[in-house]
Every structure is written in C-alpha cells, then in structure tokens.
Amino acid sequence: MTETIFSKDILKDKVAFITGGGTGITGGVARAFAEHGANLAITSRKEENLSAMKKAVEAFGGECFTVSADVRDYAAVENAIAKTVEHYGKIDIVVNGAAGNFLCSADQLSANGFGTVVDIDTKGTFNVCRAAFEELKKSKGQILNISATLHYLATPMQIHVSAAKAGVDAITRNLSVEWGRYGIRVNGIAPGPIEDTEGMKRLLPEQFKEMIVKKIPLRRFGRIADIENAALFLTSDAASYVNGVTLVVDGGQWLLGTSLA
Ligand code: COA
User: Measuring from each residue's beta carbon to the nearest atom of ligand 1, which residues come in under 6 Å?
Assistant: First the structure.
C-alpha cells in the first residue's frame, strides 16, 4: 500500500497502460495507480507476472486488464494497445517500465546481448509510445518512461543498459517537444538503487550494500514507494505544466558518483 500522501481519487477514471507492470518498481507504480483510482492495463512477456498483479489489484477492488506482449514486437504492442482500447475505450497514461538487465563487462558482452537490452528498453519504449500515439492524442494523455542514472557518469558492467537508458531519456525529450502540441506530456523517472527489487538483488551483491549506503547522501536505499509517489505526482494534474523532464529519485546518489557495479 502506498503511503497516503495524495488524494485517493487523484487518477480517478484514468486508464493506464503499463509495460512491465507485473513486477518490481513498475509493478509498484501500477498498483499505486490503481489505489489512486486508475483502471489498469498491464503487459509483460510473462503471463504469471500478469495474473499475480491482476489478483492483487482486484483484491482491493481495482480494475486490472492484462495482455501479454513483448515490447520488442511492434505488432504485439499494437495488438495490446488495441485490446486495451476495446476493453476500456481509451488510454490516458502510458508507462514504459519493461526493461532487461544483467551485469556484464563490455569485453565479454556479445553484440546480441547489447542489442537485446537496447531492443527491450529503447526500441520497446519507442514502440509503445508510437503505437499509443493516436489514443494519447485523443485523450490529451501522457507518457512516463522509467529510466536510470547509470549513463549520467559511467557504470562499469552496464554499457548495454547505460546506452539503452540514454536512448530512453532522448525519447522522453524528443516526444515531449514533438507531441506537446497535442497536449501530450512526456516525462520520465530515473530511480536510484531501490531496495527489495529483482534488479537490486542481481546487480548489487549483499556484501557491498553497507558500503554503498554510506555513499548515498540520504543514507538509505530507495523504496518502491518513493518511485510510486514520484509517478503519481508526474501523472497527476499537479504536474500539468511539467513536460520533458526525467525526475531523478535516488537520494542524491548519482551526484557522488557511487558506482553500484
Ligand atoms: N551476461 C551476458 N550476456 C547475457 C546475459 C548475461 N547475464 N543474459 C543474456 N545475455 C545475452 C545472451 O547471451 C544473448 O546473446 P548471445 O546470443 O550472443 O549469446 C543475448 O543476451 C540475448 O539473451 P536471451 O536470454 O536469448 O534473451 P531474452 O530476450 O530471452 O532475455 C533479458 C534477455 C535481458 C531480458 C534476460 O537477460 C533476462 O531475462 N533478464 C532478467 C529479467 C530482467 O532483466 N528484468 C529487469 C530487471 S531490472
């Protein structure tokens, strides 16, 4: 449950289409949107992630439509968007959270390994934005892209993800400029190290946690709720003049250049 900071009807009657919405940070954002009145459409490659989130959302009386799709496959994305519109009649908010990640040094990474992550994160984000454009134009909707801070400096073992997320940030800026005229806002969130996520478990070995946390200005790791609250702010009318921004939610971590890898 998200801490009660925002009014519970802040996203009432909005339809949110969320990729990677079954688990992790984006799963938290999906659940928080539903808790604040949004009707969800979530997609993931894995059916089991979708059914678990659907059950959790319906348990508190929320609406959760599920459709599996691989964001790398434009036809599958188009189909997921069409099914969502068939189900709810519109889309107001798109959240691009689907991502791929693993640690690998540049000299060990294959071309396909690099390309796979860029395809999921960068091309996947473009695919979903592009396929949702006509619907967002109708609803004067908005896009929220989940990015990272890895590429602000340089993060060893993460050349593929750094390049992919730099591309996502470029998409956020470009679309905010190109689609602003239609009333579509495009923003992003760059989370820092967030506890209790699959990413953190795999990317930050337990023995380094204590050392890293001392180098975060706020002296704690982020919580999924920190990202949920930023997402609620950016997608709500409170941010109606915020466009083209990637909001860093990392306790100030990247400014100290604390590499997590
Ligand atoms: N280290 C090095 N290379 C890796 C790798 C790793 N840990 N994991 C995948 N790759 C490479 C593969 O070797 C392959 O390249 P190759 O054909 O040259 O050998 C390429 O990436 C594609 O891998 P594959 O497993 O076929 O792709 P996929 O589409 O099934 O899955 C990921 C790709 C990135 C999604 C997969 O690594 C994964 O499932 N990760 C966990 C889920 C995840 O990342 N969630 C996001 C949390 S932040």
Answer: 99-102, 104, 109-110, 112-113, 116-117, 198-199
